[in-house]
Amino acid sequence: MVFGEYKKELMDAAHNERIRLALSRAIKSYRSNTNTALKKFPHTIKLAEEVLEIKAKAIAEMEKLVQQVSQAIEENKGKAYIARTAKDALEIIDGLVGTGKLIVKGKSMTGEEIGLREHLEEKGNEVYETDLGEFIIQKLHSRPMHILSPSIHVPKEDVAKLFSEITGKELPPDDISKLVATARELLRDKFFKADIGISGANVVAAETGTLFMIENEGNIRLATGAPPVHIALIGMEKLVPTLSDAFKVAEVTWRYANYTVPSYVSLVSGPSKTGDIEKVTTYGAHGPKELHVIFLDAGRTELAKHPVLRQALYCLRCGGCLYECPVFAVTAGYFGDKLFGGLGAVWAAMVTKDRQKAAAMAYTCLTCGRCKVRCPMKIDVPTMCVELRRLLVEGA
Ligand code: SF4
Ligand code: SF4
User: Fold this and answer.
1) What is the mean pLDDT of the chain?
2) Whose CA is nearest to atom 2 of ligand 1?
3) Total domain count for the chain?
4) Does 52 reside within a domain?
5) pLDDT for the residue 25
6) Does one domain contain both 288 and 265?
7) Which atom, in ligand 1's list, is nearest to the CA of 382?
């Protein structure tokens, strides 16, 4: 995308009253929920310091961890794959999915990074986003505008209009529970009819091959539990050495994502199995018979070598920084690409390799540092953006 187009999108967003309305509601609620959560569990702040050490060490040994986790998953009778590029990941997934399948999908920024849903649809599959926000985005033919709340820029009035069009029934915007119930109704049978469920993961324990998936809606539980095949696509930066490390990362992630405690944390280490009949281990009881886990590199191991920009890999995707960013507050994810804000600029430069987008975003960042203050990993976005500008000017 050329700079002029990006600037126009950004300016249009900044003058869009509906975006401003939706974001001001979300920011208010995020701040109050997070303050309550941190007040109730004050140990989280110290725990975040410990998690930063865990992440820094894990990023330095990502290659070792990906080998270790692959072995663990295979020992658990799952299949593990290492995709060095986005194209490799799509090819692996094509080999597993084929065509003509019904797929239910949980929210995944890594899936977004490689254009997974669009790709699967092009291959002749029917794909349903099952996270409510993603479902809204899919039906609006829009794109996510926040890491955790992809439809953050869509006010309830627009959701009511969309769902009224889909169902042919008049739905009032003020009855949010009715809107949620409508999505539940529309998606309910898809979970049980689906051939494949696709998810990401928030953190993965290398020693046991355990994927942690944090959520509130229950869609991930269903999407990864009901279909006969579960495919997980996960960025290599999500790996940490031990189960105990992963629990710590998970707690800090959800607390800064404004949950006192989330409704669900699913831990998946292998396909469903039982030994209840004569102690004979048999795979495929009530859950999926197959588990396929794809770890995506796509520039992450290179990024890990950069002394300043490597911090981008510490990100827990809690989304907290975005609620503090003055540019995001008026433009939503238009100040973004696959990831948002100043961190998104680093991602565009080093992972998805869109230098034009990276440059535009790096210069949109005000380098004010408000995001760093909120960030549990103390990611220094202003310094990263200044370094990125230098690299882009030098053409490095
Ligand atoms: S430093 Fe950049 S990304 Fe961070 S809050 Fe300021 S403008 Fe937003
Ligand atoms: S940069 Fe920090 S605050 Fe922002 S999503 Fe990542 S971990 Fe959370």
Assistant:
1) 93
2) 365
3) 2
4) no
5) 82
6) yes
7) 1
